[in-house]
Design a protein that fits this description.
Blueprint: H1 4-13, E1 20-26, E2 32-36, H2 38-50, H3 76-93, E3 98-106, E4 112-121, E5 124-133, H4 134-143
């Protein structure tokens, strides 16, 4: 019989080359949601993009400065700056997957943008969508 640590490593951390993580969402069965493989990376990348720099105490450079681009002009140069920020931060903090494509769409009815990142991990592709808007900017300023 495996000890408690071995059972934890197999059921939670991952096994057979699969990466796994637990998300803080309660499933209908009352358990936290367990995700594997690409979903783990997407969750990690989403956290990196939505965490502003200088808010994580033990690593002030962790996160991204996407919130600073909310009020920038809506043009190709700003879109390129956003793409560069995403590429630099994701590949620096979590390079387990590769980025196939980054698409930045500015909204027309309010200040902000939607970022779509196509991710490839072991032949599996998924899309990460993240919204950054004036609400995000205000929330970040209250915490800094």
């Amino acid at each position: 019989m495996a000890n408690l640590l071995d059972r934890f490593n197999i059921s939670v951390v991952g096994s057979s080359g699969k990466i796994a993580d637990i998300l803080p969402f309660i499933s209908p069965k009352g358990d936290f949601k367990r995700v594997t493989n690409l979903d783990v990376i997407l969750n990690s990348w989403n956290n990196i993009l939505l965490t502003s720099t200088r808010t994580y105490f033990f690593d002030p450079e962790y996160g991204s400065d996407l919130y600073k681009k909310v009020f920038d002009p809506v043009d190709e140069e700003t879109a390129e700056l956003i793409e560069d920020e995403i590429m630099d931060k994701l590949m620096y903090y979590d390079n387990r997957a590769s980025i196939d494509k980054i698409n930045v769409e500015f909204t027309t009815n309010k200040k902000g943008f939607n970022v779509s990142v196509v991710v490839d991990y072991d032949g599996e592709k998924k899309e990460l969508n993240t919204w950054m808007g004036e609400e995000s900017f205000g929330n970040i300023l209250r915490t800094v």
